[in-house]
């Protein structure tokens, strides 16, 4: 769970974690976080210290007093040693100052989860009959393993993480092939065709073309 009143930052962290295969929930205040902890029972909390209705330090104290040992990684714009010591003393598991690297935050989250007894690995991403295991870099369709090239895997994973959202060809190029790729929209179309032949041969199909815009991986509508 990500607790931060900065909506842009909370969304960025949540999106990065989802891309790594984690389920996420977001709260913007201490009060929202208290309710969300009870509702979701998170495996780890990324907690801003300065919240609009109280302190993240106080929230961590309250969690520890209630015998909830959920790991906490503090985020703060302050880097005073006293605040860092306070955060770790009251039961925080790690401490990161803003601005920070999302890659470093995710690495620290995995390390804290490992220390707390969890594997720290993402759960498989499942959309209908499609399952993507990021840790094993493996894809199953209807329970059967399908061999994909690294680029095909990256493209399918990007579509699945954004299931239900139409992605433009430009967005796909920038994410899958990175900004220095010298290709064009034809590369996206070609690899979409590869994926359809390998993982989307059943009915209903998951990968859809949105004319003049791009592509979307859309789970089938539930049967009434």
UniProtKB/TrEMBL annotation:
Q: What Gene3D superfamilies does this protein's entry cite?
A: 3.40.50.2300, 6.10.250.690, Winged helix-like DNA-binding domain superfamily/Winged helix DNA-binding domain (1.10.10.10)
UniProt DNA-binding region? 122-219
Q: Which protein is depicted?
A: Two-component system OmpR family response regulator
Q: Which GO terms describe its molecular function?
A: phosphorelay response regulator activity; transcription cis-regulatory region binding
**Does Cell inner membrane count among this protein's keywords?**
no
Give the record's GO biological process terms: regulation of DNA-templated transcription
Residues carrying 4-aspartylphosphate: 48
- Start and end residues of each OmpR/PhoB-type domain: 122-219
Domain Response regulatory residue range list: 1-113
Q: List the GO cellular component terms.
A: cytosol; protein-DNA complex
């Amino acid at each position: 769970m990500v607790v931060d009143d900065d909506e842009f930052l909370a969304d960025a962290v949540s999106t990065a974690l989802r891309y790594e295969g984690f389920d996420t929930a977001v709260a913007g205040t201490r009060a929202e976080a208290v309710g969300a902890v009870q509702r979701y029972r998170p495996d780890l909390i990324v907690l801003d210290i300065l919240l609009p209705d109280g302190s993240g330090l106080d929230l961590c104290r309250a969690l520890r007093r209630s015998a909830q040992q959920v790991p906490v990684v503090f985020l703060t714009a302050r880097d005073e040693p006293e605040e860092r010591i306070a955060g770790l003393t009251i039961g925080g598991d790690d401490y990161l100052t803003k601005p920070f690297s999302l890659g470093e935050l995710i690495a620290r989250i995995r390390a804290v989860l490992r220390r707390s007894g969890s594997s720290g690995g993402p759960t498989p991403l499942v959309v209908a009959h499609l399952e993507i295991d990021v840790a094993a870099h493996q894809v199953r369709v209807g329970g059967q393993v399908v061999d994909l090239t690294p680029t095909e895997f990256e493209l399918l994973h990007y579509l699945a993480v954004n299931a239900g959202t139409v992605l433009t060809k430009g967005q796909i190029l920038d994410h899958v092939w990175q900004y220095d790729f010298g290709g064009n929209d034809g590369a996206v179309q070609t690899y979409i065709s590869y994926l359809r032949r390998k993982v989307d041969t059943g009915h209903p199909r998951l990968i859809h073309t949105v004319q003049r815009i791009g592509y979307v991986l859309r789970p089938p509508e539930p049967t009434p």
